């Protein structure tokens, strides 16, 4: 069993889900509960998909903060999330959010019938 990764207690998470990430994708939305910097984002599939699914993450309707780097690989059954860590957390080069910002996770690509998905944004 791998050892747990210690994380600061000042991290907060925006956790959202959707009913479909594949053939007919449905975006998931959430609200930032606090101000801070985006530390990491995650995306997971709740079923079998084919093709790579790309998840665009936007803040207040802006451009994809991941630049297309958050993906869910094709696979069978529910599986572990894809995790994308952001460099420069807490610095001027980091991506910041303000309390109340509107966060959207938009999946695209890949196929599968009514495959649920889950998304997380960790704010520090």
Structure description:
The strands form two sheets. Strands 1, 3, 6, 7 and 9 form a five-stranded antiparallel sheet that branches. A four-stranded antiparallel sheet has the order 2-8-4-5, with no helix packed on it. It is built from no helices and nine strands. Helix content is 0%, strand content 40%. The radius of gyration is 14 Å and the shape is globular. With 124 residues, the chain is mainly β. The protein has strands at residues 12-18, 28-31, 36-45, 53-59, 71-72, 82-85, 96-97, 102-108, 117-123. The model has no long low-confidence stretch (mean pLDDT 91).
Order of helices and strands: EEEEEEEEE
Instruction: Report the biggest beta sheet as strand number plus sense, adding barrel if it closes.
Output: 5 strands, antiparallel
Q: If you average the pLDDT, what whole number results? A: 91
Percentage of residues in strands: 35-45%
Topology:
Elements (H helix, E strand, L loop, with lengths): L11 E7 L9 E4 L4 E10 L7 E7 L11 E2 L9 E4 L10 E2 L4 E7 L8 E7 L1
Antiparallel strand pairs: 1-9, 2-8, 3-6, 3-7, 3-9, 4-5, 4-8
Entry keywords:
globular; single chain; mainly beta; four-stranded antiparallel β-sheet; five-stranded antiparallel β-sheet; 124 residues; 0% helix
In brief:
The chain is built from no helices and 9 strands.
């Amino acid at each position: 069993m791998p050892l747990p990764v210690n994380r600061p207690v000042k991290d907060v998470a925006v956790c959202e889900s959707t009913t479909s990430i594949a053939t007919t994708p449905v975006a998931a939305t959430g609200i930032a509960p606090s101000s801070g910097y985006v530390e990491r984002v995650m995306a997971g599939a709740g079923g079998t998909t084919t093709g790579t699914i790309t998840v665009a993450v936007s803040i207040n309707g802006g451009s994809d903060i991941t630049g297309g780097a958050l993906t869910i690989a094709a696979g069978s059954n529910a599986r572990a999330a894809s995790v994308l860590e952001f460099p420069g957390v807490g610095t001027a080069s980091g991506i910041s959010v303000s309390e109340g910002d509107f966060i959207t996770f938009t999946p695209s690509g890949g196929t599968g019938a009514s495959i649920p998905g889950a998304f997380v944004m960790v704010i520090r």
